Amino acid sequence: MSAGQTLLIVEAMKMEHELRADRAGVVGQRLREVGEMVEADDPLLDWDTAGAIRPAPALSPNLNPSPTATGTASASASTPDCEPLRRLRARLAFTEDAARPDAVARRHARGLRTARENIADLCDPGSFNEYGALAIAAQRQRRPVDELIAQTPADGIVTGVGSVNAAVFGPERSRTAVLAYDATVLAGTQGMRSHQKTDRLLQLAHADRLPVVLFAEGGGGRPGDTDMPIVAGLHVGTFAAMARLSGHVPLIGVAAGRCFAGNAALLGCCDLIVATRDSSIGMGGPAMIEGAGLGVVAPEAVGPATVHAANGVIDALVGDEAEAVAVVRQLLALWQGDLPAADAAAPDPLALRAVVPPQRARAYDARAAVTGLLDLGSVVWLRDGFGRAVHTALGRLGGRAVGVLASNPQHLAGAIDPDAADKAARFMRLCDVRGLPVITLVDTPGFMVGPAVEAQAQVRHASRLFLAAAQLRVPVFSVVMRKGYGLGAMGLTAGGFHAPRLTLAWPQAEFGAMGLEGAVRLGYRKELAAAADDAAREALFQRLLQQQIDAGSALEMATTLEIDAVIDPAETRDWLLRALQAAPRSTGAARPGVLDAW
Question: Do residues 74 and 105 share a domain?
Answer without folding.
Answer: no
